[in-house]
């Protein structure tokens, strides 16, 4: 138990650093736009398209390697790469150079989550997996909190280039700790009928495609990610441009929202799903479905009101309700596949979620903003949240049957 907690704790810290390096870009975006004379579409490419495309395409071959080899070493190597490329982002002097650096960050970060999901699933039993994976997913809100707050104050005091230097260097030191202390667990320790044979990529995709609930969780989480990645990339720009907040004021508010509202939502949803799951396993679907639907009116007010305090409060409420999906959808997917498929499945899922969400979301906001204005762009994307909730409700209908089918 002690080793399991250490493993989860170290993976959480690594994932925090992962999201600090990723999210710091969003708080620096307006300063970078002004300094490098960029359009909102170019910002969308920097925060979404270019990053997401290479993140997603690199993830699958790395995950295939992780299903066959030492996952801990892969994570340590990836951590060095994305941290070094974050530092390189601060050296950029034009759009092309910064895009190249952000692509490097994306390639490095692709080596983090698939092997981490696989390690966690082999470290914790199924009845504790939703809580464990939701704990790991806390890296998103915690990393966002530190990335936005630190990035805002560093940019205001020292410039956006220095901000990249400061947040990138600690990851290189953390990689040494990961290399020396992150334990590689036995594969499939809590699963039946475990073999040493690694399923082919085509076989894994075919296996996933046969399960209706897998199809629905992929479509639901991808649709929700389109909205969440899109608006998150432009929240700081929104508060600076529409509500006249300084970069540090925007970073502080958004960081606290991500860390507190997002963090409580991610962990609380996992904890609740494990407990409600003793009564009915489908609660792991119903919780994110309810949260997504309830978030819609809060998002509408957040992006339409002229009152700054109300806008910030509504963003916080919508964040709390929306982020219940984060750990739960990954727990659903990990439970639906065999042990030697887990890293590959995670990479395929992240491929779909990030190519659609991380890639399409920020670009869509940027292009819609250039054409219709930032408020309208953020409001229009909320339709994806309603679409996501529909898939969660449909996926719940076949979930228990598909859990049995995976072992058939």
Give the arrangement of secondary structure elements:
Elements: H1 2-36, H2 40-66, H3 71-89, H4 95-109, H5 113-121, H6 126-137, H7 139-158, H8 160-181, H9 201-209, H10 212-241, H11 247-276, H12 283-304, H13 308-322, H14 325-335, H15 342-372, H16 374-380, H17 383-396, H18 399-405
Helix pairs in contact: 1-2, 1-3, 1-4, 1-6, 1-7, 1-8, 1-10, 2-4, 2-15, 3-4, 3-5, 3-8, 5-15, 6-11, 6-14, 7-8, 7-11, 10-11, 10-14, 10-15, 10-17, 11-12, 11-13, 11-14, 12-13, 12-14, 12-16, 12-17, 15-16
Describe this structure as you would to a colleague.
This protein is an all-alpha fold. The chain has a single domain (2-183, 198-405), classed as MFS general substrate transporter like domains (Growth Hormone, Chain: A), CATH 1.20.1250. Helices cover 82% and strands 0% of the residues. The protein has 18 helices and no strands. The chain has helices spanning 2-36, 40-66, 71-89, 95-109, 113-121, 126-137, 139-158, 160-181, 201-209, 212-241, 247-276, 283-304, 308-322, 325-335, 342-372, 374-380, 383-396, 399-405. Helix 3 packs antiparallel against helix 4 (95-109). It is globular, with a radius of gyration of 20 Å. The chain starts with a helix and ends with a helix.
Shape-level CATH architecture: Up-down Bundle
Low-confidence stretches: none
Strand content: under 5%
Helix content estimate: over 70%
| Class from secondary-structure proportions | mainly alpha
- Specify Rg, calculated over alpha carbons: 20 Å
Report the CATH C-level class.
Mainly Alpha
Beta strands, count: 0
CATH homology-level superfamily = MFS general substrate transporter like domains
Arithmetic mean of pLDDT: 86
> What's the number of domains?
1
């Amino acid at each position: 138990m002690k080793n399991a907690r250490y493993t989860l704790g170290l993976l959480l810290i690594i994932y925090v650093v992962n999201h600090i390096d990723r999210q710091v870009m969003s708080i620096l975006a307006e300063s970078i736009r002004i300094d490098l004379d960029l359009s909102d579409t170019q910002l969308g490419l920097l925060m979404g398209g270019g990053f997401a495309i290479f993140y997603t395409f690199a993830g699958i071959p790395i995950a295939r390697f992780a299903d066959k080899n030492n996952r801990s070493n892969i994570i340590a190597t990836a951590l060095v790469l994305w941290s070094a490329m974050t530092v390189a982002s601060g050296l950029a002097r034009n759009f092309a150079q910064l895009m190249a650096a952000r692509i490097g960050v994306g390639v490095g970060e692709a080596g983090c989550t698939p092997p981490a999901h696989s390690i966690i699933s082999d470290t914790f039993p199924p009845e504790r997996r939703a809580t464990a994976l939701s704990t790991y997913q806390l890296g998103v809100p915690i990393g966002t909190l530190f990335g936005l707050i630190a990035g805002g104050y560093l940019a205001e005091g020292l410039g956006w280039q220095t901000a990249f230097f400061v947040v990138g260097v600690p990851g290189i030191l953390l990689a040494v700790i990961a290399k020396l202390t992150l334990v590689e667990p036995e594969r499939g320790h809590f699963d039946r009928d475990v073999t040493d044979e690694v399923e082919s990529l085509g076989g894994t995709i075919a296996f996933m495609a046969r399960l209706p609930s897998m199809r629905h969780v992929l479509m639901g989480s991808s649709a929700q990610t389109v909205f969440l990645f899109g608006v998150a990339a432009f929240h700081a720009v929104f508060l600076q441009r529409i509500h006249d907040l300084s970069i540090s004021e925007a970073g502080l508010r958004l960081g606290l929202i991500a860390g507190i509202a997002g963090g409580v939502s991610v962990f609380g949803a996992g904890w609740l799903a494990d407990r409600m799951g003793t009564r009915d396993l489908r609660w792991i679907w119903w919780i994110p479905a309810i949260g997504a639907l309830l978030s819609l009116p809060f998002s509408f007010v957040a992006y339409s009101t002229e009152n700054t305090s109300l806008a910030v409060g509504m963003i916080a409420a919508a964040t709390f309700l929306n982020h219940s999906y984060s750990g739960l959808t990954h727990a659903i997917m990990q439970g639906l596949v065999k042990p030697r498929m887990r890293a590959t499945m995670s990479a395929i899922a992240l491929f779909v979620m990030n190519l659609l969400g991380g890639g399409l979301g920020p670009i869509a906001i940027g292009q819609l903003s250039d054409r219709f204005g930032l408020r309208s762009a953020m409001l229009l994307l909320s339709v994806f949240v309603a679409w996501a909730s529909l898939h969660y409700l449909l996926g719940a209908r076949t979930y228990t049957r598909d859990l049995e089918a995976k072992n058939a």
